[in-house]
Amino acid sequence: MEILLKNGSLELEDGASCLAAAQKISEGLARSAVAAKINGELCDLSATLKAGDTLEIVTLKDREGLEVYRHTCAHILAQAVKNVYPTCNLAIGPVIENGFYYDIDFKTPITLEDFAKIEGEMLKIVKANTPIERFELPRAEAVKLMKKYKEKYKVELINDLPEDAVISFYKQGTFTDLCRGPHLPSTGKIKAFKLTALTGAYWRGNEKNKMLTRIYGTAFEKKSQLDEYLIAAEEAKKRDHNRLGRDLGIFMTSDVVGQGLPILMPKGAKILQILTRFVEDEEAKRGFMITKTPNMAKSDLYKISGHWAHYRDKMFILGEVDKNGESPKGEEIMALRPMTCPFQYQIFKNGLKSYRDLPCRYSETASEFRKEASGEMHGLIRIRQFTLSDGHIICTKEQVEDEFKRCLDLSYYILDALGMRNDVSFRFSKRGKSKSDKYIDNDEAWNKTEAMMKVILDDLKLDYVEADDEAAFYGPKLDIQAKNVYGKEDTLITIQIDFAAGESFDMHYVDADGVKRHPYVIHRSSIGCYERTLALLIEKYAGAFPLWMCPVQVKVLPITDRTLAYAEQVAEKLTYAGIRCEVDKRNEKIGYKIREAKLEKTPYVLVVGDKEAEDMTVNVNRRGVEEKSTVALQEFMAKVVEEDAKKIIF
RNA sequence: GCUAAUAUGGCUCAGCUGGUAGAGCAGCUGAUUCGUAAUCAGCAGGUCGCCGGUUCGAAUCCGGCUAUUAGCUCCA
């Protein structure tokens, strides 16, 4: 029979396997093959071919090949765990970005110390080089088999498979696991693996279900690649803002202040001030009106906005309330604001608006408060009080598209200045099919707004992923996502269209035809949450920020006390020119001072000695540049001022 | 909130199976006045996160709380 390849064709015996095909092409290919694709479908190497099939051999060079490899490793982990702890129950064991995990229900909890034992058992399974065989069963038989092995989670999985699903199993020696596959032909193919973490995870991702034990691991083709990966992961941790930010004196936390309440120290506060001024000025240039609204309000406001019904458990409430959110004593209840929207709406409602007043663009550097669950806090990324560049554009239906695009343009501009434009991805966060009570109940509004946003996003040719059940309680969002050093993704910036607020807040404007109409609202952030953005900046630059956002741009180091006066004179001139600088006045050797200034990642270090003092020059050490140069102080100042204004990203 | 781990001077960490704390860096003092990533010496600094329990005796064992970290859930 004839089999089609990417380039050319192959003559094989009837019923030949993919592996046989690979062997016919070359022995080398057969050795490196891990799976195959028949007519584009990923399958085992043992899968048989039919005349006319298109065949592609998958190796570890392919992403899918590595996934098959890691998935097989997950099965080896499962088998090893079953060997060591026969009473445990297996749940699921998928491949993830950098490896795999397996969720397991242990009768008695295991610890990290048990990893050695499990890894040892895995090694035995690999060394035994057991063949891995696929077989299929009808549903009833499949359930029976898993019941025999007392795998209750697998039984549940089988029962939830669609009616027409093929139910397949993989058997390696005495171990059999429910799995769609494909897998490697035998366990001996695994060369380098390691178990990396031990955590908990809810069965089926639902917090109402039992929490299982999740074992994370990874596997590579070669030991050297595994080592490289582990070292890279260690290196990434050194950039972790939560460590670096503290080391560099950017922020701290205090037990007595509380969880999720970071304290920004002078350097961190300075960076935020620089970013805030930049953003507020840019917003003003783009027609935003700055507002300053209260940090708290009566529950009455949140009842109108829907927060009281949909968001109350995440709010800090001042005063005693019952489970319906009412004061048992009939007192006035205040709450810290989790968002700025309802406050800015009050400004719009102040006085009758004409269509000529629209779009009405409000923005504010707002402190917001959200009672995140205790386990959810993380450094500066997830906190309970944060500063959001929060704004609302109140406009006509016709203006929505243009205003939305302007919001995105502003965010692009800011991301460019931060050097982060290429670090983000886009998510269209919809309610989608999910209709839980966490969303405002208005199908028409949801459908209409989601459709409207999709048209805009498609028109912008944005490369976005759609995500159901990720919307805000009041509407869909365009989320601009960024990843931290651990690869965990968070929302940096969000732009949202709200179609219901006009009506629920009774906002209106008088249109050209004299009719009162409800406006549309765009909720948006330009730079996102300052603390979170700062966290990602620390990690991106490993603390070596672009000049314009450095809390200390220049450090002046006198060589001896003789030139201290000159150093101070230099610093005074720099400060007067708007350059942020410090003088290291300590009586230390110049090498010592340079070392410290460099560890602090100061962009410019100026060494001043007798020579420099004599002719009003400075010896310039640029961060990351080996050569040093002596230039006139005036010249240096002009250069730094220019560089600062340009917001050059290095 | 859940599953786990961790908590020792400002920082990084030692302190084995319970006998009552130690180093390096930082700090302070003195000497040194030095030309590009750590000058030398001395001093000081800790009720071992907090509260309770077991014990003749707890940094060490047990419980509770607080905080931190990874993950789950959630999310700007």
**Weakly predicted, low-confidence segments:** none
How much of the residues is beta strand, in percent?
A: 25-35%
Helix content: 25-40%
* N- to C-terminal distance: 60 Å
Strand order of the largest sheet: 16-21-22-29-26-25-23-24
Which value, in Å, is the CA radius of gyration? 31 Å
Number of strands: 34
Structural class: alpha+beta
How would you describe the overall organization of this protein?
- This protein is an alpha+beta fold.
- It contains 20 helices and 34 strands.
- The protein has an eight-stranded mixed sheet. Strands 6, 7, 8, 12 and 13 form a five-stranded antiparallel sheet that branches.
- The protein is globular, with a radius of gyration of 31 Å.
- It starts with a strand and ends with a helix.
- The chain binds one RNA strand of 76 nucleotides through strand 12, strand 13, helix 8, strand 22 and strand 26.
Short description:
With 650 residues, this protein is an alpha+beta fold.
What are the key terms here?
alpha+beta, eight-stranded mixed β-sheet, five-stranded antiparallel β-sheet, globular, RNA-binding
Please describe the topology of this protein.
Elements: E1 2-5, E2 8-11, H1 18-25, H2 27-32, E3 33-38, E4 41-43, E5 55-59, H3 63-84, E6 89-90, E7 95-96, E8 99-105, H4 115-128, E9 132-137, H5 139-148, H6 152-160, E10 167-172, E11 175-178, E12 192-202, E13 211-220, H7 223-238, H8 241-247, E14 251-252, E15 263-264, H9 266-285, E16 289-290, E17 296-298, H10 299-305, H11 307-310, E18 317-318, E19 334-336, H12 341-349, E20 353-354, E21 360-369, E22 385-395, H13 400-418, E23 424-429, H14 443-459, E24 464-467, E25 477-483, E26 489-498, H15 501-504, E27 509-510, E28 516-517, E29 520-529, H16 530-541, E30 554-558, H17 564-576, E31 581-583, H18 590-599, E32 604-608, H19 610-615, E33 617-622, E34 628-632, H20 633-646
Parallel strand pairs: 16-21, 20-27, 23-24, 30-31, 30-32
Antiparallel strand pairs: 1-2, 3-4, 3-5, 6-8, 7-8, 8-13, 9-10, 10-11, 12-13, 14-15, 17-19, 18-19, 21-22, 22-29, 23-25, 25-26, 26-29, 27-28, 32-33, 33-34
This protein binds one RNA strand of 76 nucleotides through strand 12, strand 13, helix 8, strand 22 and strand 26.
